[in-house]
UniProtKB/TrEMBL annotation:
The keyword Chloroplast does not apply. The keyword Transcription regulation applies. SUPFAM superfamilies: Periplasmic binding protein-like II, Winged helix' DNA-binding domain. Residues 16-63 form the HTH lysR-type domain. GO terms for molecular function: DNA binding; DNA-binding transcription factor activity. InterPro entries: LysR-type_TF_proteobact-type (IPR058163), LysR_HTH_N (IPR000847), LysR_subst-bd (IPR005119), WH-like_DNA-bd_sf (IPR036388), WH_DNA-bd_sf (IPR036390). It comes from the Bacteria. Keywords: DNA-binding, Transcription, Transcription regulation. The gene is lysR. Belongs to the LysR transcriptional regulatory family. This is Regulatory protein. It comes from Azorhizobium caulinodans (strain ATCC 43989 / DSM 5975 / JCM 20966 / LMG 6465 / NBRC 14845 / NCIMB 13405 / ORS 571). It holds the Pfam family HTH_1.
Length: 300
């Protein structure tokens, strides 16, 4: 079919709806009424012959066909925006609003503590950081990029390994005074307490293991406290309730300040990966590229 320039307007409206999460908020961002947004989406749906959104009285979500369409056109729209701005200064390319999806460990203890330098570098950029147990639907929920610990699951997203950080077993001085310090993983079965972290994908505690050289010893950790987030895990460990397995990327400051002590340091070869995720396209927007460069710097 012949290209209709009005398609670009409709695609822009769809992109605003995905980012805002509703027709009303998209209208506010675009300076349109909610009915005008609804009509623009309906015209685009009629033009391309698919239903883009599932609509209910309380929420909207992308249909399967709508998601595939949005994944294909969103990078192109971002490329057009960047090309339009390319006549200005390089910093002018990094502007608008960047929506970032992170897990609690990275969001609370790494990203937000260091984000000020990034915001200072790009004064025309605003950042929304959403901490979530699971990444969910990155595209459908309107996120630009995600940074999360753990191994990637199969998806249409591009996953970039940022680093592999060691898993350290830590305890407070008060815990050591009460229970002693183990000299070997097998000593943990003799009355030691562990603070357990719930795996949101299974509902069960994460499994513990100890690695040295090529040897790995699995351990069935047990304790009276199970938590659902990293902040509570660190809090329980600092409070002397039990030992905890923490990631070195955020535990190193606590160890350096003497607030925690590393247990069994010779058995700490186990690592856990940190990945960045974004749409699988060669047309990565300037704001996403700038953010990924920043994250690579702070995780070196």
């Amino acid at each position: 079919m012949a290209f209709d320039s009005r398609l670009l307007n409709g695609i822009g409206v769809v992109s605003a709806v995905v980012e805002a999460g509703s027709f009303a908020r998209a209208g506010e961002a675009l300076g349109l009424t909610q009915p005008a947004v609804s009509r623009a989406v309906a015209r685009l749906e009629q033009r391309i012959g698919i239903r883009i959104f599932n609509r209910t009285a309380r929420s909207i979500s992308l249909t399967d066909e709508g998601r595939r369409y949005y994944e294909a056109v969103a990078p192109l729209i971002a490329g057009i925006e960047d090309a339009t701005l390319s006549a200005g200064r390089a910093k002018a390319l990094v502007r608008g609003r960047l929506r970032v999806n992170v897990d609690g460990a990275f969001g609370h203890f790494v990203l937000t503590r260091r984000l000020g330098a990034f915001l200072d570098q790009y004064p025309d950029l605003a950042v929304d950081v959403a901490v979530r147990d699971a990444m969910g639907d990155l595209v459908g929920d309107g996120f630009d990029v995600a940074v999360r610990f753990g191994y990637p699951e199969p998806s249409n997203l591009r996953a970039e390994l940022l680093l592999e950080t060691r898993v350290l077993t830590c305890a407070s001085a008060s815990y050591i005074a009460r229970y002693g310090a183990p000299s070997h993983p097998r000593d943990l079965v003799n009355g030691h307490q562990c603070v357990l972290l719930r795996d949101p994908s299974t509902g069960r505690p994460y499994e513990w293991e100890f690695s040295r050289g090529g040897e790995t010893i699995p351990f069935q950790a047990s304790g009276r406290l199970m938590v659902h987030d990293t902040g509570s895990l660190i809090g329980g460990c600092l409070g002397g309730i039990g030992m905890a397995q923490l990631l070195e990327l955020y535990a190193e400051n606590l160890l350096g300040e003497g607030k925690l002590v590393q247990m069994l340091p010779e058995w700490s070869d186990e690592t856990f990966p940190l990945y960045a995720y974004h749409r699988a396209s060669n047309l990565v927007s300037a704001k996403v590229s700038a953010f990924l460069s920043f994250v690579r710097q702070i995780t070196r």
